[in-house]
Amino acid sequence: MIKIAVTGACGRMGGLIIENVLKSADLKLVSAIDVTGIGSDIGEVIRGGKLDIPVSDANDISSVLERSKPDVLIDFTIASAAVKNVIAASGKKVNLVVGTTGFTPEQRVLMEKSIRDNDVAAVISPNFSIGVNVFWGLLAEAARNLEDYDIEIIEAHHNQKKDAPSGTAMKAAEVISKVLGGKEFVHGRHGLSPRRKEIGIHAVRGGDIVGDHTVLFAGDGERIEIKHQAHSRQAFANGAVRAAMWVSTARPGIYEMKDVLGIK
Ligand SMILES: NC(=O)c1ccc[n+]([C@@H]2O[C@H](COP(=O)([O-])OP(=O)(O)OC[C@H]3O[C@@H](n4cnc5c(N)ncnc54)[C@H](O)[C@@H]3O)[C@@H](O)[C@H]2O)c1
User: Fold this and answer.
1) Is 2-128+233-261 CATH 3.40.50.720?
2) Which of 77, 80, 171 for a ligand 1 pocket mutation test, highest count of atoms within 8 Å of Cβ?
3) pLDDT, tens digit, for every residue of 113-128?
């Protein structure tokens, strides 16, 4: 049985991941951690009935991990919190699944240093859906063959999303840029903004859109659009739970979802 702790337990993703952990015969929820709902029964928070696991205070994360002894911590919070949670968990030799997005390069360095210094294994991905991980591969393939085309990335998410552009859109831009030997990124356009050979990135926010990503390759007389649409957060939760099982026995290191899925 793999013991799981979840940070961001009361959030949209955390709650869904807990539902999935509870359904799995191989996983056991040992702690639910957040900065809100502290002391409430997590089963009641996610409307699944009493579980006798109270929500623990994230400010106390080291002692919560010490007491509950998880094999893996799954973090879907906000970037500043995720950095603290990753440092605390790796310090306690707990392997990690990190789904939080919006890290600055400095935050990413801090997290990676703690993971490596403590010899733990972590899967870090801005998108745990299988489809998006295939989508990134398709973008690389298109970029290899359409290097002179104009490239624009358009993403759309619900009106509660805090960071922009999405981590998935930024990863799409990085995948394409790597294939093309380095590209400038231009975020939105306003006023005089002649198009050069940049990758344009655009964020749309509205309603309850779970997550749409379109990458447009436009050339003379034609265009290709490669598009992924998430219909529900279940796609991310399934992937995060799969990553937790995989990382529980992984060698120390920092991995992506494609390592979990065996995608080249
Ligand atoms: N990688 C993926 O596949 C994927 C998919 C969806 C969302 N996300 C990302 O996951 C994150 C969470 O998304 P969400 O929609 O669940 O957000 P949400 O706002 O619904 O939930 C975030 C939760 O984190 C909690 N939190 C804040 N600070 C905390 C701390 N220090 N310790 C513990 N918990 C803390 C909040 O109280 C809240 O309950 C975002 O960064 C989002 O972009 C990633």
Assistant:
1) yes
2) 77
3) 999 999 999 999 999 9
